[in-house]
Design goal:
Blueprint lengths: L2 H16 L3 H13 L5 H19 L2 H7 L3 H21 L12 H5 L2 H13 L3 H9 L10 H29 L7 H24 L2
Helix pairs in contact: 1-9, 2-3, 2-7, 2-9, 3-7, 3-8, 3-9, 5-10
C-alpha cells in the first residue's frame, strides 16, 4: 500500500470512528457506570465485534449474505431490534444518582458480562459489514499482495478505533460528578435511550 493511500485511508477512518455511534456511546456509558478501568472490558467487546466484522468482510462474507435472499434483511432487523431494546432499557432505568466508587454496579456485572454486552452492541449492526466491504476495497492495490494490505488496514483501524474508545471513556468519567444528581442522571438516561432507539430505527429503515 502506497504511503499516500494509507494516509487517505487513516484520515477517513479517523473521522468515521470519531462519529458518535452505538459503540462509542456504550463505552462512554460503561465508563460512567463502572469507572475507566472496568470499562476496558466494554472497549474490548466493542473492538472484537468490529474486528470480527472487518475480518468477515475481508473473507468475503458480504458476498455470501448478498447471495442468500433475505439473509441481510434478517440480520439488519435483528440488529435494529436489539438497539431499540437497549434504548428502552436505558430510557426506563432508575433515576438514582451514580454513586462513584461505591462498587455496587461493578459487583453486579462481571468483566465477562460487560464484554459480552458490548460485543452484542458492536456485532448487532450488520450495516458495518457492508460498509467494510464497500470501503476497504477502494484502498486496495490489485497488483500487490492483498493479505498484507488488509492486515495494515485492519491494524490501522484498530489503533484509531481504540484511541477513540479511550477519548469517549475519559469524557464519560469527566461528567460522572455531574450525574451524581438524580435530575441530570434522568436526562442522561433519556438521551442515551433515545440515541439507541434512533440508531435502531435508522437501521430498520435503511436499505
Amino acid at each position: 500500500m502506497a504511503l499516500h493511500t494509507w494516509w487517505l485511508y487513516a484520515v477517513t477512518v479517523f473521522f468515521v470512528s470519531a462519529t458518535p455511534g452505538p459503540n462509542m456511546l456504550h463505552v462512554m456509558a460503561r465508563s460512567i457506570e463502572l469507572g475507566l478501568v472496568r470499562s476496558f472490558a466494554a472497549m474490548a467487546g466493542c473492538f472484537v465485534a468490529v474486528l470480527s466484522l472487518l475480518s468477515a468482510s475481508a473473507l468475503g462474507l458480504t458476498a455470501l449474505l448478498l447471495a442468500i435472499p433475505g439473509a441481510f434483511t434478517v440480520l439488519r432487523l435483528a440488529g435494529a431490534a436489539y438497539l431499540i431494546w437497549l434504548g428502552y432499557n436505558a430510557w426506563t432505568a432508575k433515576d438514582a444518582p451514580i454513586d462513584i466508587g461505591s462498587g455496587e454496579v461493578s459487583a453486579a456485572l462481571s468483566p465477562w458480562r460487560v464484554f459480552a454486552k458490548a460485543f452484542a452492541v458492536g456485532i448487532s449492526n450488520p450495516k458495518a459489514l457492508l460498509f467494510a466491504a464497500a470501503f476497504l476495497p477502494q484502498f486496495i492495490d490489485a497488483s500487490a499482495p492483498k493479505g498484507a494490505q488488509f492486515a495494515v488496514m485492519v491494524a490501522t483501524f484498530a489503533v484509531i478505533e481504540i484511541s477513540w474508545y479511550f477519548v469517549y471513556a475519559v469524557g464519560g468519567r469527566s461528567i460522572a460528578q455531574f450525574l451524581e444528581r438524580p435530575a441530570p442522571r434522568k436526562l442522561f438516561n433519556r438521551l442515551t435511550g433515545g440515541a439507541f432507539v434512533a440508531f435502531g430505527l435508522a437501521m430498520a429503515g435503511s436499505r
